[in-house]
Amino acid sequence: MDELSAPAVAALRQAQKTIIEHSLDRISAAHPWYRTLPEASRRQIEKVAGLGVSMFVDSVEDPVSAASPSQIFNVAPAALTGTVTLGQTLSLVRTVVDVVEEEAPDAVPAEDHDAVRVRVLTFGRDVGFTAAEVYARAAEARGAWDARLESVAVDSMLHDSPDEAATRAGTAGWRGQGPVLAVAARTALDALATSRLRHECRQQVKDALVSVRGDSVIVILGGARLSEGDTERGITPERALDTAAMELAAGLDGVAVVGPVVSTVSQAGRSLRSALAGLRALPGWTQAPNPVHADDLLPERLLSGDPLASEQLRVLVSEPLHAMGDPFEETVATYLALGGSLESTARTLFVHANTVRYRLGRVSEQVGWDPTDARDGLMLHMAVIVGRLAAERLE
Hints:
The chain is α+β, with helices and mostly antiparallel strands. The chain is built from 16 helices and 5 strands. It has helices at residues 6-30, 32-35, 39-61, 86-107, 113-159, 162-171, 191-204, 228-232, 237-250, 268-281, 298-303, 307-323, 326-337, 342-349, 353-367, 374-394, and strands at residues 180-186, 205-213, 216-224, 255-258, 292-293. It has a 5-stranded mixed beta sheet. Helix 5 packs antiparallel against helix 6 (162-171) and helix 12 (307-323) crosses helix 16. The chain starts with 5 loop residues before the first helix and ends with a helix.
């Protein structure tokens, strides 16, 4: 690029102050949002704009020793990236470049007009790229810090008191109330995939925490987004949240277990421990669907030593079955103990086979597990054993 003449450089230096003033006037007139910023932020922007024009003149005068455009943003604190967006910053850069492009050529001899315009556009391009780099670094730092806060919140759900867990979740950005559940998956996510997962979670639910741990990922979800149609169809917030969790888990590249819904984020540790226990017990059920609910893995969780599994079996299966009365509980226990034979069960209980069918059908309707199904039968059989052992301990 041709060197500018000495008179052209001197003329630019003399016009520098005026160009800065006009640039600031144009910024204030062209961008209404700028006038709403706190005074401290406006002063920082004025410093950046003034330094930008000064550095442009320096680069014209001595291209070799002139400072890099990246130095322009050193006068602004990193916090400014949280006040002014990247789009707004680029608009400011464009405004200042427009003013310099309009006024700088008029300040130099005619033979230097084109050279000055080329230098203005080149310098403006470099500043624009530098701004994007500054914001990218700031976003990366914020993302790393947010990820750390989310991981700390998830750890707190596993190890701390419910109140402490709720506090940690709030620090990580959790704001909502209502049902919560956890998803545990065995999958490796890089930074881009993790960011995409966070975005997908927040598209479907109001609150989400994502914690990546080596070859696994934990997601805490809360506050499903219900439409008017969902409400009219009687879809509860709990059901909507579970549906959203299953959809998100299905999109993960790996096996995933969805924990049970709990009432608040302070109880999220219970759902999380269930999901993690399900993930550990998953190899015991090779035909398990993917994703799978942690409560569907209760037999495997029980055998793997999960203390929550015994409690869940009592609450979900044993107690509802016991509440139906001795005939129903005894029929299920006998039917399962005799290998699922209607005739043998009827003979043992001294009832008709149709009575056995009726009782098994009622159990399926009210408890939710069908004794005639192999998988459901296993669940019921384990629940009967857990219930009997619990009753024995109470005697």
